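Structure ticket #2291
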Amino acid sequence: MSLAQQKVLLYAGILLAGILAPFVFPNYTFQISVLWVMILFALTWDILGGQMGYNSLGNIFFFGVGMYVCALVQIGLYYDVSTYTSATGGGIIKLSPEQYFIGLGLGVIAAAAVSVVFAVIFGWVVFGLRGPYFAIGTLGFTLAAGELVGAWEYVGGGGGIALPVYPGAADARSLFFYIICFVLAISTFAFLRWLYSGRFGLAANAIRDDEEKAEAMGIHTMRYKTVGWTIAAFFLGISGAIFGNMIGFIEPLEVAFPTVTFGIFMVVMCLLGGKGTLWGPVVGATLFHTFKEVTWTYMLGWQWVALGGLIVILVVFFQQGLMGWAQDKWPERFGLTVDKNVISHEKAKAAQ
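Resolution: structure written out below.
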């Protein structure tokens, strides 16, 4: 069987598994929905962190922006937001199916658009930083965003916002959001696969290898970095809008801007699977989410210790990630060709 045929079977298997999952495991529909969100997290973080070498700790900012923008649109279309979010407000509003789906659709569009605008604005600020300064800079404005939103009474402050109730049965609600998460993750993967196969992928890797040389060769590095971050912001904004409605309640620090959980998870997932590869984030997110669900269920109280142990193992033994390790061990299975004469020559030089 050729490599192309194997890829077709792999894609078909994933699609089939994704379609059948909520029917085969109906009690775990929410957990599998979160898995698709985790895959999207890892894929979008890898655009800068893996493909370009800019390790951001602030990508979760766009997730939170999308969540709040969508909520404000959904509520603001039919109700006064300040009254709804006040301590003595009107409570949870009940919308008709038409009102709910129109509000959700417009909210998702607004979430994506506003996230992209923020990515462009902040990109011109933080892309002047390199290395750990870039990581700390992105972390700083994400932490600041959570604190500012927590003090903004118009959007509920630290008390958060209860979102409009889905107009249907609980099972239908779970399936509805599962389908959206599944389609969103698959769309993100397909888009990035197409994006990396062209000029953008070559330019991104050139920036990662040596940004100064890439600039000298005529590559507009700032443009490519900004485009990469806006793409990540676009998908993260949509995922935030969907995730907020999926759980039904949002608040600034633990749900919308969870830097110490989701913000770190997306980095660990890429490291686990292998950053800078297309399939690495997918593999890493799947394994990490499974590991997280098992430890959070059966090792409650020790789950963070287990997570810390996983990170130590990654750093010590799998610095290139599982996909990188597999490509080094079985390059022919990934369509890579290795010049054995060169390897023999390098080994001889090392022996001398």
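Closing remark: The mean pLDDT is 87.
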